[in-house]
Amino acid sequence: MDSLSRSSAGTAPQKPPGKPPRGTVVRGVLVPERRFTPWAGLYFAGFVCLPFLAFCLALDLLLYFLFRHAFDSCYALLCLLD
């Protein structure tokens, strides 16, 4: 007997070739691949987008008052509202 037939003796029959499972096998357990979930979208919005927008709003208001009162000039579109 050659080594190929001896190594496959006593093992479970192999699945026919087809679509491989999606993910990685770790210690015999199939771990699903990463995917974008609704919770990931909420965390991204809450911890990345909203703080960035709040920072931009604060910076915009700071620059508006700085230009308006310190330099007595118009700053962006907010001057059109007066």
Describe this structure in words.
The protein has 82 residues and is mainly α. The protein has one domain. 48% of the residues lie in helices and 7% in strands. It contains 2 helices and 2 strands; from the N terminus they run αββα. 0% of the residues are buried.
List the helices and strands and how they pair.
Blueprint: H1 3-8, E1 24-26, E2 29-31, H2 38-70
Antiparallel strand pairs: 1-2
Q: Specify the helix fraction band.
A: 40-55%
Q: Give the strand tally.
A: 2
| Rg value | 31 Å
- The structure class reads mainly alpha
Which percent band covers the strand fraction? 5-15%
Count of individual domains: 1
Shape: rod-shaped
Annotation field: number of helices: 2
What is the terminal-to-terminal distance? 93 Å
Task: Determine the mean pLDDT.
Answer: 79
Major beta sheet, specifics?
2 strands, antiparallel
